[in-house]
Amino acid sequence: MTFQTAVKAAFSTTAALSVLLAPSAGLASAAPAPSQGTAEVTASGFDAKCRSHSRTYVLKKYYRGPRAITLRCGTPTWGWKHIKARHGWSSTMDKKINAAIWSGDDNGRGGYSTYLNQCPRVEKFRTIIGTPAGNNDLLTAYKVDQPAIAGTAAC
Questions:
Q1: What's the pTM value of the predicted model, to 2 decimals?
Q2: Which of 32, 70, 88, 105 could staple 36 via S-S, CB 3.0–4.6 A?
């Protein structure tokens, strides 16, 4: 075997191995772990989890910087069961909760809110954090139907 033939064989073997290994490694790294908040966000998926776990079971984590806010199964007065029964659960609700916690402003009620981009600022979605199970747990989240106008002095 000549040097040139040996080099070609080595390159083709390396290329074949990388093709075989890359897809499985790519799939493993592309899907974040469920503990990072990619748990099934459908009502039926959460229903199933809450039927087989206690009220303190963590369904999902939302993040505000390094701080994790947990959504627990809860009860009719707090957590996922409360949000589903009183305000409805959908992927849209999940996205609004995530947006409010991640980038919303402190609402003075132990949570974060999003506002319409106008002056004066008008609150459109609110989260409240703090439950009997923990200080970093989502108590409730809802669309603000009759928004109060927040601070007009800044306009």
A1: 0.70
A2: 32
- Name the least confident of 56-60, 116-120, 137-141: 116-120
Q: Which amino acid is at 110?
A: G
Distance between CA 29 and CA 141 in Å, rounded? 31
Buried b (16+ CB within 10 A) or exposed e, 83-106: bbeeeebeeebbebbbebbeebee
Structure tokens at 42: 């459908």
> What 3-state class would DSSP assign to 6?
helix
DSSP SS3 for 34: helix
Of 133, 147, 128, which Cα lies nearest the Cα of 73? 133
Instruction: Please give the angle made by the CA atoms of 36, 37 and 39, to the nearest 5 degrees.
Output: 120
* Three-state SS annotation for 57-125: CEEEEEEECCEEEEEECCECCEHHHHHHHHHCCCHHHHHHHHHHHHHCEECCCCCEEEEECCCCEEEEE
Paired residues of 63 in beta bridges = 68
